[in-house]
Known about the structure:
The complex is a heterotrimer of chains A (about 210), B (about 240) and C (about 220). Chain A has about 210 residues and is α/β, with parallel strands linked by helices. Chain A has five helices and eight strands. The longest helix of chain A is centred in the last third of the chain and has 16 residues, at about 150-165. Chain A starts with a strand and ends in a 19-residue tail after the last strand. Chain B is about 80% helix and about 0% strand. In chain B, helix 2 (about 55-80) runs parallel beside helix 6, helix 3 packs antiparallel against helix 4 (about 125-145) and helix 3 (about 85-115) runs parallel beside helix 5 (about 150-180). Chain B is globular. Chains in contact: A-B, A-C, B-C. The interface of B and C includes residues 156, 173, 174 and 178 of B.
Amino acid sequence: MQMVLRVSNLTCMRGGIPILANVSFDLHPGQILMLRGPNGIGKTTLLRTLAGLQPLHAGDIQGAEDQIAYAGHSDGLKSTLTVQENLLFWARIYGTSGIQAGLDAFDLMDLQDRKAHDLSAGQKRRLGLARLLVTHRPIWMLDEPTVSLDTNSVAQFATAVRAHCASGGSAIMATHIDLGLEAETVDLTPFKALAPIDDAFDEAFL
Amino acid sequence: MSLWEYANPRKFIATTDVVLPWFWAGTIACLVVGLIWGFFFTPDDFRQGSTVKIIYLHVPSALMAINAWLMMLVASLIWLIRRHHVSALAAKAAAPVGIAMTLIALLTGAIWGAPIWGKPWAWDPRLTSFLWLFLFYIGYIVLWQALDDMDTAADMTSILCLVGSVFALLSRYAFLFWNSGLHQEASLSLDKETNIADVFYYPLLLCIAGFVLLFITLVLVRTRMEIRARRMKALIARERMV
Amino acid sequence: MIAILTRDLRLAIRSGGGFGLSLMFFLIVVVLTPFAVGPEPQILSPIAGGILWLGAMLACLLSLDRIFALDYEDGSLDLLATAPIPMEGIVTVKALAHWLTTGLPLTLAAPAFGLLLDLPFSAFGLLTLSLALGTPALSMIGTFGAALTVGIKRGGLLLSLLVLPLYVPTLIFGAEVVRRGIEGLSIAPALMMLAGITAGSIALIPFAAAAAIRVGLR
Lengths: 206, 242, 218
């Protein structure tokens, strides 16, 4: 059973400098959240912080423990392993069984014995996204998930996200493409961290 | 008032502004008096002749090479536990001073050893330990430089320093096990029986005090420099934020 | 965790370089030594144990940067870090996989290479024993070095520089076991130190290496 992911007054750092401050939102089961904002605003940093890859500078994240499946810019595929082997590996890591749902959702059945280095960029991306289904984690965190996908695959992806949310999951994604999903949009621009006004360098040199 | 207040960069710079001249003065006074006394106003050793006088550089630098390490270890621990940036920067600042002290100890040792042992280098446990220390300082310094992000570099080097300290002790034991040495026993100890004669002892103590002060002074100067470099980086980053 | 182990072993076999590369390097060191110091058994025999240990250590060093670099580049390390397996476990398994692909083959091949260097027959058992005891420490320490340099591009040389001093005690005690064995001295102290270093490394280094990986990923 998924809890509500609650982010309150989060400050994220990149390169030792706060770039987003006081980010707050709730993510309920079934909900989709779209992160918007110009390049460099900190969408990736926010997602990485939520996924626990980066320490948070201030604020609080609740309900993220063991709930998140993260998909970053790279797919984490091993080029000498086949599609099936790649997915099975992640299934075993997450202690789940069955990669069939992932193969079906992204139309990878015919490719499953193909080695990952023989796949096109779009096919690799589909394999990377299929991993999300394999993890059985309720909250998907997606960083530019539609890069190098064709229209058809984008539709497949939207269907997969919709199905995931219909079964009680939720998703946060940073994307500029309109997927035709019922989603809330969070514009990160207002959360941009302001440069400290005074000249006082405190302990952390911020 | 707590000691940790000095971990604030501002407070640190302000305080060192005041004390640094005194450290410089103390360093110069101790070293000038100690070295002149040692070099010109002590008798030659009855076996080693005037060669023995290199002791006034060799022993203090060797001592500080190890103490610099200890200081880095403590500073690394403070950084890992309390996240004071000045502490991490002080560890960074101490490393080049430490490697210089190690190098001085190795070189003066070679100069001393050449006429006395008949060769500048021997795989003696003490010598080998200093060579080990030298190698490790290089790795530590290069790791600092290889990482762009200051906090990442501080974390990585601190972890390296902790693990390295354990292996330093292990290596020291391994060297003793592997080869019993040529090097004489420690010249100084609290047990007066084994100490060198008083005529050598007092100038040597003064030289050691001078090296301690020199080390502190150099580390303070370099820490101030690192703080300013770090502040400059932060300022540039701030410019970009606006 | 077994999944990571089988995956790493499978990758090592498929990419071809895994088992073979360090063995080849070991062979090169062993074959070149007589060319450099001369073929006489009375020269080779006393240094054989040391050369074999040195060769094993260098061969081990050669493959260290592959431990995390590939996973870092293709993003799997990020994904593993968010997976429900503690980083300490991942690090330990990575070190185990490294040992299975380098340390173990080196240990098994060492007696054969010992023949090439006129290692006394009495020392064959000791050589294998000391390598079997010592190479896990080499893999573990190397994994720590690889974790420290995980985000650094072309960190291979730096990795060697960092790891080399840490390898010194293992090398000394390992080679000492063989040397003392040949000279008929007591080998127990060296053997115990070697085993102690390995046990200590396996027990403590995963924590340091995992901390370093977490720092390197952010």
